């Protein structure tokens, strides 16, 4: 961004040079000294203002790119398809978990279908952080296959939505205590008696936005409270990013309504094919992909979508 005060600073520098030449003048020297101090103060003020404007511009333009080194929160929700959709959601989670096991990323479970990816990894001689690598996985993933519960061999279509959010520092999103409603309950499922017998599970409602997040993975309520706040902070950040995108005419839906028609990718088992509909590319190694072999697909999608984004900016 060009300094908006270039011409004004140049004029001040010219006046400063003129007054410096008069400093040794027996008559005008004292006046020149006073004027010089005023001019230098004005120049410093303009330079500081220009620096602040440039920094603000860089932050607004590079706000997302500044998050490229961020950890990522990955949340999966079952969509259309009933029980098969729930199975598919868990299959997707397993796919991403297997990928982290094949790389140097570290994984932390935040809830049953919510994980945090941390650290960094090297793929094809390039270092990646979780959010910059996974951010294009956000959207609806559709599967076409014969469910194990299908006795007549019919192909079913189910969906699950994936949301990828950066880990947002607590200072970046203000959350007021008076806007929060906390509920505590006993956690169900596996985890031992200490989980099931204490009110460690948390449901957090953010009243202004209506967002509701839950956390029940940890045994201690305090840990689940922190996780719930972290999830809420990331979702509030995403809402603000959506508002900015809408104003720029580039509105998008990250999770969507998890319906069949709103898809970014289809996993077709009968044809052993995975197709990403945003770039119209297919890969014919579905089984390997489902088992975590995502490197080629992730990098190709990232390269093409990043190029498209650069062209529109």
What is this structure's SSE topology?
Blueprint: H1 6-21, H2 29-61, E1 72-78, H3 82-102, E2 106-111, E3 114-118, E4 121-123, E5 126-128, H4 130-134, E6 139-145, E7 156-166, E8 180-185, H5 193-197, E9 201-206, E10 211-215, H6 221-247, E11 265-268, E12 273-276, E13 281-283, H7 286-290, H8 295-312
Parallel strand pairs: 6-11
Antiparallel strand pairs: 1-3, 1-7, 2-3, 4-5, 6-7, 8-9, 9-10, 11-12, 12-13
Helix pairs in contact: 1-2
Descriptive account of the structure:
- By secondary structure, this protein is an alpha+beta fold.
- It is 42% helix and 22% strand.
- The chain has an eight-stranded mixed β-sheet, with helices on both faces. A three-stranded antiparallel β-sheet has the order 8-9-10, covered by helices on one side. Strands 4-5 form a two-stranded antiparallel ribbon.
- Helix 1 packs antiparallel against helix 2.
- The longest helix is centred in the N-terminal third of the chain and has 33 residues.
- The protein is elongated, with a radius of gyration of 27 Å.
- About 9% of the residues have low confidence.
Sum up the structure in keywords.
single chain; alpha+beta; Double Stranded RNA Binding Domain; 3-stranded antiparallel β-sheet; 8 helices; elongated
In brief, what are we looking at here?
The chain is of the alpha+beta class and 313 residues long. Helix content is 42%, strand content 22%.
